[in-house]
Design a protein that fits this description.
By secondary structure, the protein is mostly helical. It has helices spanning about 1-10, 20-35, 40-50, 55-75, 80-115, 125-130, 145-165, 170-195, 205-210, 215-235, 235-240, 240-265, 270-285, 285-290, 300-310, 310-325, 335-375.
Length: about 375
């Protein structure tokens, strides 16, 4: 038993920022909860709505905050050279690409072997992250849409910022701020244009045209970059109002939940354009409080930290791999309905967490250690 527990044991550094771990853990739990609701009875499914928030938007803002902070640190310490830029990309790619490509290859193999007529060459767009650049994301491997947004952010934003600093001789803080404002305004205007030109009347079209495309969602990460700008250049403001901002962020999330509950079917200007802005803003104003929450203790602390560590693996595995290829295909028809559904739901969560721990410990973490040799 002890040997088995050691297989799943994860050691972590004590100097992690606990507040950001909480936010990252909640983000992935919201995503897994939302997708897992498909396994439940319709009445119970509807109840999960009240416990589910936009986990992907939270991921985007948190990612923008962390990457924006890294960009600022790099540019304040080093020249905006090609070598510095390439080193930044190498470190990011070692963090994001191996896990993603592993899951992508697994899904391609499974689909080719077990799905009649599946064409494996369709996966080339996923390797290049262009499957939803400005068009609706395909139904296959649906979680990958957010990875495309992230990767294009990693690619484009550093180029713009490095270009402003290195070629145009703009100081770092202005380059960060100008780039953030430009992308925020541009993405919002694109959504407004699409709202006028491409009105939608159902959730599927809204999801495909507005929520899941790179061209309409890059601004979500820029809210995090603005957070990094304030954190590094106006730290006193960041710390001084952290409690008030945190309460305001919670209230804003609750207001959005009310708006989603009673106005979702309208698919008007709020839902198609500004709902993404509000979700990102609500997450941003949580960050001052959470980024100053440095440590914790007890079971709750360890639980949030563990989930935070394996969050990327959980995101990649939970739906297309575990739910679609394992849970849904289980034949439990001999069991009573409540037992069958309860068993599948419990297995869904258990396998998501356990397999994600294995993926993190024996694949993701060793790959991360390798990046020091190449950067």
């Amino acid at each position: 038993m002890k040997t088995l527990l050691n297989v799943f044991r994860i050691d972590f550094e004590k100097n992690r920022i606990y507040g950001l771990d909480i936010l990252r853990a909640l983000a992935v739990l919201f995503v897994v909860l939302g997708h897992g609701s498909k396994l439940l009875f319709p009445k119970i499914n509807r109840l999960t709505f009240y416990a589910e928030f936009d986990g992907v938007a939270i991921f985007f803002v948190l990612s923008g905050f962390l990457i924006g902070g890294i960009l600022i640190k790099v540019l304040e310490k080093k020249d905006a050279s090609y070598k510095t830029l390439f080193n930044f990309w190498v470190r990011r790619w070692f963090r994001t690409l191996p896990n993603y490509f592993l899951v992508l290859v697994i899904l391609l193999v499974l689909s080719y072997v077990f799905i009649d007529g599946f064409a494996p060459f369709r996966g080339y767009k996923y390797f290049l992250f262009v499957q939803n650049l400005y068009t609706p994301h395909p139904a296959w491997f649906p979680e990958a849409w957010s990875l495309s947004v992230e990767e294009w952010f990693y690619l484009l934003i550093p180029v713009i910022v490095f270009g402003l600093v290195g070629m145009c001789k703009v100081i770092t803080n202005k380059a960060i701020l100008w780039t953030s404002i430009f992308i925020l305004v541009l993405m919002t205007l694109i959504r407004v244009y699409r709202f006028v030109q491409m009105p939608v009347h159902n959730f599927e079209d809204w999801d495909a045209i507005f929520r899941q495309q790179v061209l309409t969602r890059l601004d979500s990460l820029m809210f995090g970059v603005i957070g990094a700008y304030i954190f590094y250049y106006h730290k006193q403001i960041w710390v001084k109002y952290r409690n008030q901002l945190f309460i305001s962020g919670i209230i804003l999330f609750l207001i959005m939940k009310y708006l989603d509950r009673y106005h979702m079917q309208a698919f008007g200007l709020y839902q198609c354009v500004f709902s993404f802005t509000l979700a990102s803003l609500a997450t941003l104003i949580l960050l001052p409080f959470l980024s100053e929450l440095k440590s914790g203790k007890g079971v709750v602390y360890k639980s949030f930290t563990y989930i935070s560590l394996i969050s990327y693996s959980m995101y990649l595995l939970h739906f297309s791999v575990i739910q679609k290829w394992i849970i849904v295909k289980l034949d439990l028809s001999a069991l009573p309905d409540y037992v069958r559904i309860g068993t599948k739901y419990l297995l869904y969560w258990s396998l998501t967490i356990l397999i994600s721990i294995l993926m993190f410990k024996y694949f993701e973490r060793p790959i991360m250690k390798l990046r020091e040799r190449f950067s």
